[in-house]
Amino acid sequence: MRHRYDLGYPLNFGDPHFGLYNPVLDCFLITVRNLAGAREIQHLASSRYDLYLTDLVPAVNYAPNFIDNKCCHAWSMVNDQPLPLGDRQKLDIVLEVKKLVPVHHSDLDIEQEKIWLQVMLYWRSFVRWIKTDQIHYDRYRLLKSFIGTDFLQVWQAVDEFDRMSLERLYLGTDTREINRSITAIVNAGDFLRLAYQKWKKQEVYCS
Amino acid sequence: MEKTRSLLFLNQRCLQNPVVRELLPDTFDWRLLERRNDFDHGMHAWVVRSGHNFMPFHNTIGQHDLFRMPAFDPRFDQTFAQITDGVCQELNIKRADRPWLVLWSGGIDSTVIVASLLRNLSVQDRQNITICCNHASILEYPRFFVDCIQPNFRVTDSTWMCARDIYSGHYVINGEPGDQIFSHRYSRFLGDLGQLHWKAEADRLIEYLAGFSDPEFARWLYDGMCANLLSVDIPVITYRDWFWWLSFNNAWISVLLRHYPYFVTDIPLTQWLHDSIHWFRAPSYQQWSMHNNHMDMKGGHHPGDDKIAAKQYINSVYPDHYYLKYKTKVDSTGRLSPPSFDQDWVGIMDDYSYLRIDSNTDVDQLSVIISEHCR
After folding, report:
1. Cβ contacts (< 8 Å) between B143 and chain A: which residues?
2. Residue A133: pLDDT over 70
3. With an 8 Å Cβ cutoff, are B331 and A88 in contact?
4. To which H or E segment does residue B115 belong?
5. Tens digits of residue pLDDT in A141-189
């Protein structure tokens, strides 16, 4: 199955652009177009490492096509203050990048980690699409707490898929196995399978 | 309160209390202590355990068995793994009379404890062990929780527990003072400066300290530490070593005592001291700590090098490439919910009674006690 690789740069001038920075590798591992998506990636990636959420746009040498997910690992950053290493509460803050600086790596792990984060972005954007694009989901959420679920099984399947895919993304270590198992869940039910096919046909980006 | 009683340990945060401030001798520079609190986030009251005492308080508590620093043994050669195994095995023999409650914050230090239990104890031995943690602990190391803790231990949620629940009939094991064995919070920002000689490059070190405080305080701290280091035989050479010594020598006692005020309304201090097992307090860990500066066992330039010896030990039990490479030292938030922090806690008396300010306090006697504790 061919997966869409999201380059992550803004589609329009002036749009937001966030980078997730790994302090151990000293580089960005992924860039994302929206804050909610970036936060979700940050939270999910925490099972492996801490990623610092940064706003790339304020950097003095920033341009929308300057840094994307093909080359983000070749960039680090300079800030006014040292990175707040060790302070878990500071992980929630969006750090403004003062300047992007090039870095050179020979770390073989980087490519694997970038792929894993792309897989995460891909599947989480599918879940987000189901829940926002399909208007009935909002009504389901409203009603499920007090209405019998016989008529709401389709949306239960969405919740269940959300839960199961999250678990695999969060706790899994083998990217291929993660992909394989999530795809199997999708293909196991008619609704999810059809929704997935519809989503893939759309010309939209994951973030 | 008898007049012959003396103060063993002063909670330096209480100096922010205007009532206490009024009781200080006129010659006492409390502003210095305020800046010290700002420098070291106020949780640690510095008490010099070994060497020249440059703090403005008498050091009486540092000689008690519970807090004394062992004499540096140049022949000591145990590894971190050997020590950790030994501590666990010894506890299994000497503290087998009660169940254990292990406070797992999700951080590196408490994860070492759980790894050691898995490595050294049989399934039968572990039946009397409960892991106490909350959601923040799990978030810090979820795979370890799922793969190692849940299948092997009873687990209890610490979120709403109070001290009486926790200390009731258990030995309570925690990961203190793990940070003091390894380093100081400001050494993680040192980078290449960490390898400079603290004495030969004094000006840069003072400048670095001033970045976290002010020039006057930085000078005072440097001069005091210099006098202290020249009076001991511990090998302290680089900036990184210097910061380690600041934490290991000066913050140690306060760290061992710091959680007690959270539970002050629940249990007596003497019971708490008896029932609390501070895992890294063992003399063997302290010897290891004194021997392993500039050997890359504690940390290096890289944030991923933090507590590398501890991470390697955990990895021996639960191989996890990501943890070994990427896990950094983070102030764990998986702590017990304190009912309240006693702002009126003054300190600990020489009979281990708890001294605080309340409506029954004899202010005149308190003034004498505090004055006699100050230098």
Report:
1. 47, 171
2. no
3. yes
4. helix B108-120
5. 777 777 766 666 777 888 899 999 999 999 888 999 999 999 999 999 8
Residue B329 to residue A86, Cβ atoms within 8 A:
yes
Question: Among partner residues A24, A86, A88, which is closest to B302 by beta-carbon distance?
Answer: A24
Q: How far is B313 from chain A (nearest CA, A)?
A: 18
pLDDT the model gives residue B277: 93
Q: Is the pLDDT of residue B343 over 50?
A: yes
Q: Is A88 in Cβ contact with B333 (below 8 Å)?
A: yes
Of B139, B185, B303, the CB nearest to A24: B303
Asked whether the predicted pLDDT for residue B332 surpasses 70, the reply is no
Residue B335: pLDDT above 70?
no
Cβ atoms of residues B51 and B72 within 8 Å: no
3-state helix, strand, coil in chain B (%, to 5): 50, 10, 40
Q: Give me the percent of chain B exceeding a pLDDT of 70.
A: 91
**Backbone dihedral region for residue A52 (phi beyond 0: left; psi -120 to 50: alpha; all else: beta):** beta
Helix axes A190-201, A109-133, angle to 10 degrees: 110
What is the structure's pLDDT at A2? 41
The answer to whether the Cβ–Cβ distance between A85 and B142 falls below 8 Å is no
Contact status of B43 with chain A (Cβ, < 8 Å): no
Could you tell me which of A116, A21, A105, A113 has the C-alpha nearest to residue A67?
A21
Please tell me the pTM assigned to this model. 0.86
H helical segments located in chain A = 35-45, 109-133, 136-143, 153-171, 175-188, 190-201
Question: B340: buried, middle or exposed (CB in 10 Å: 19+, 13-18, 0-12)?
Answer: exposed
Distance from CA of B94 to the nearest CA of A (A): 35
φ/ψ of residue B183, rounded to 5? -170, -165
Question: pLDDT tens digits, residue range B64-98?
Answer: 888 889 999 999 999 999 999 999 999 999 999 99
Contacts of residue A41, defined as CB under 8 A and 6 or more positions apart, other chains included, come to: A20, A30, A32, A51, A117, A120, A121, A124
Q: Is the Cα torsion angle B245, B247, B250, B253 positive or negative in sign?
A: negative
Amino acid letter for position B80:
F
Q: How far is CA B163 from CA B138, B156, B336, in A?
A: 21, 14, 9
Question: For tokens 């795809």, what's the residue?
Answer: A183
How confident is the prediction for chain A on average, in pLDDT?
Answer: 85
- Six token digits for residue A121: 């972005």
Nearest to A176 by CA among A109, A116, A122: A116
In the chain, the amino acid numbered B105 is S
ipTM of the complex: 0.76
Whether pLDDT at A190 is above 50: yes
Residue B274 has pLDDT above 90, yes or no: no
Q: CB of A47 within 8 Å of any CB in chain B?
A: yes
Would an 8 Å CB–CB cutoff place B150 in contact with chain A?
Answer: no
